[in-house]
Amino acid sequence: MTENQSTFLAKSEVKANDLDHKRKLSFNIQKYKDTVVKGKQQFADLELARKKAKNIKWKAIENLDKYLVEFEQKFTARGGKVIWAENAKQALDAVLNICKEKNAKQVVKSKSMVTEEIHLNDFLEKYNIESVETDLGEYIQQLDGEAPYHIVTPAMHKSKEDVAKLFHEKLGTAPNLSPAEITKVARKNLRQKYITAEVGITGGNFIIADIGAVAVSENEGNARLTTSLPKTHIAIVGIEKVLPSVNDLQIIWPLLATYGTGQNVTVYNTLFTGARRPDETDGPEEMYVILLDNGRTNLLLREVRESMYCIRCGSCLNACPVYKNIGGHAYGATYSGPIGSVITPHLNDFKDYKHLSYASSLCGNCTEVCPLKINIHEMLLENRNIAVRENMNGFAENSAWKFWKIAMLNRRLLNSAGAGMKNGVVNKLFKDSWGLHRSSIQFSGKSFNQLWKERNKTSSPR
User: Fold this and answer.
1) What is the rounded average pLDDT for all residues in the chain?
2) Alpha-carbon torsion 62, 63, 65, 68, what sign?
């Protein structure tokens, strides 16, 4: 068992038995579900929209090299600068070099999972560069010293009382602030940061190839301030975020909004095509786009390449019974929930994170709620298959499954084992997993095979 796996099991056990945590998570997810039902009503034919969106991403990923080069050509033609980063180190070094060139001591950052993936804040701190989160949820998490809990809702596990207490402890505010008052405090604290920061950093929801643009969706306006006031804008975007055409957004944007937050469309949707032009009154003097691989091409080489269609709406997390019991932090990875369990082993060392693919009931609800119909639960099985094929499961586990297979394929062997033997073997093997919080398993005194024979003997001929 790897260290990551043992940590995951320990955290999962704690959270699965934390009733207060589960209550807060259940409350917030239910609010999400209620709004998504309303959001879906904007589509005349939702299933058709989902199919079209999947086809768009299929086209993009199958021609990834072509569209990324097209984006670079269009973006650089307007004076933008593109940096290709094969891994996290190259991306971090690129950001650091830009910050040093601009003598930056402070950066403001809008919500971005890819910057969490490369641990940008911790990296900049080592060089005495303050990185300030400007999204309210991310700001809350940064104050608390925690990583984001959810792909879309970073502080989903916190109640308004938790946030008020945190602000009281960290900022000296009153201990019982309302959500509106909390927002005002955050806004006041962040306003000056936008003005004094030399660099603004964002992620990117999509890369638009045919016009050479980075698309950013948000609800608070903080990304627009992050990109408008600092003199330099850096967008760090995973290479899988590419879309062939700006026309694709008319389907993708509403789907992202509906499945992400239940909205018809997010409040602010912006296309960044480069730095401020001579006839424009605001915007950065320079804009950089860092195209990050960091293991994403591993997904292309495997049977899980469909996972690159993901638009990071977070709907699979909200539907997953495992996530709803253990929460986001238990996964020990940037991307949690079903889609995180698919991609994380490929973005990191597969053996260290293969256990995440077993943290699933395989109920298929993740696939059902995905706006792009990504076959998530089948890819979790594929990850398990990869682990077996590449001998990552260890001698004991492999031997156990071999014996299980032999027994299940041999009717005589199954019949020879009575209920007592089955009870003893199974309850002993699984006493530290299944049996830890459950009563022991009791097999029937007669097997199905025996019951079938007895029934046939007593049944009258027809």
Assistant:
1) 94
2) negative
pLDDT for residue 422? 82
**pLDDT at residue 344 in the model:** 97
**DSSP per residue over 149-173, as a string?**
SSSS-TTTT--HHHHHHHHHHHH--
Confirm if 201 and 107 have CB atoms less than 8 A apart: yes
d(CA 382, CA 306): 12
Residues β-bridged to residue 218: 268
Q: Greatest CA separation found in the chain? A: 94
Q: pTM to 2 decimals?
A: 0.91
Residues of the chain with pLDDT under 50: 462
Q: Locate 28 and state its tokens.
A: 């917030």
Burial of 8 (0-12, 13-18, 19+ CB in 10 A): buried
**Residue 432: C-alpha distances to residues 4, 8, 427, 443 (Å):** 19, 16, 9, 19
Instruction: Tell me how many degrees the CA angle 174-179-180 measures, rounded to the nearest 5.
Output: 95
Over residues 305-347, the pLDDT tens digits come to 999 999 999 999 999 999 999 999 999 999 999 999 999 999 9
Give CA separation, 246 vs 47, 270, 419, in Å: 22, 12, 64
SS3 label, residue 348: coil
Angle 245-299-382 (CA atoms, 0-180°, nearest 5)? Answer: 125
CATH T-level assignment (fold) for domain 54-294 = Rossmann fold (3.40.50)
- CA–CA separation, 104 vs 85, rounded Å? 21
CA 306, CA 58: separation in Å to the nearest integer? Answer: 8
- The secondary structure of residue 133, as a DSSP letter, is E
Neighbour-count burial for 385-408, b at 16+ CB within 10 Å, e otherwise: ebbeeeebbeeeeeeeeeeeeeee
| Token digits of residue 460 | 């009258």
CA neighbor of 140 nearest in space, from 119, 166, 116, 176: 166
| CA neighbor of 355 nearest in space, from 461, 433, 452, 438 | 433
Which positions ≥6 away from 229 have C-beta within 8 Å?
Answer: 194, 195, 197, 200, 282
Distance (Å, whole) CA 158 – CA 298: 35
Q: 201 near 108, Cβ under 8 Å?
A: yes
Length of the chain: 462
Looking at residue 281, its pLDDT comes to: 86
Segments making up each domain of the chain, as ranges: 54-294, 413-458
Name all contacts of 129-133 with Cβ < 8 Å and 24+ positions apart.
Answer: 129/99, 129/104, 129/105, 130/105, 130/106, 131/106, 131/107, 131/201, 132/106, 132/107, 132/108, 132/190, 132/193, 132/197, 133/109
